[in-house]
Amino acid sequence: MVGISPGAIFPDVSAPEKLSLSGLSRGDLEALTERLLAENAALKQAIANLRAEIAALKGVKGRPAIQPSGMERKTEPKPEGSDNRRGKKRRKTERLVIHEDRIIKADVPTGSRFKGYEDFVVQDLELRPHVVRIRRERWQTPDGRTVTAPMPTGITGHFGPELRRFVLLQYHQGQVTMPQLVTQLRAFGIHISKRQVVRLLNAGNGAFVDEARAVLLAGLETAKTARAATGTL
């Protein structure tokens, strides 16, 4: 049997490597994860192309695309004036939580009869600073000690958990650079410096490193399975 190298079948996929994850930084883990995901996608595409080529050589046709007959649909006549699209929109807005009712008054002549409201739901986004002054109780015990109430959980410096969650989301998933992130926060009315943003990004990121490591291991396992399926191990 003639041996075939992986590069002959998958020219864009590198050969498997032995990796040591203990000494990798967060940036290295993210870069390695992206590379493995790209290789995994290339392997899947190569497998699909090989299967299609084998099927074509064997003369096997793909499954026919059969459209549904529509027999399951209701045959009752629609009432006059009904609009399915409008009904779907209404059902979607009924699941929303209403935060504010804004009543718009109408200019009507004297003697008119009130007939209720015609509702129209509008979704909006509100980005504004929310400043909280935390006032921790201080007590003096009978023996002269001073007891102060603990700080709430989730506070990093002088910034709350929602602001830190926004910073992490913008930086890691939105690919917003550090200067742009500082400018963005200041435009919202947040008094923050670049050093403080760095602290928000670096404080207690163990969960994010664990998540990146889990994605990396899953990518390695998927790539190993794909190579085994094609006999390129």
UniProtKB/TrEMBL annotation:
Keywords: Coiled coil. Residues 71-85 have a biased composition (Basic and acidic residues). Residues 62-93 are annotated as: Disordered. Residues 29-60 form a coiled coil. This is Transposase. The lineage of its organism: Bacteria, Pseudomonadati, Pseudomonadota, Alphaproteobacteria, Rhodospirillales.
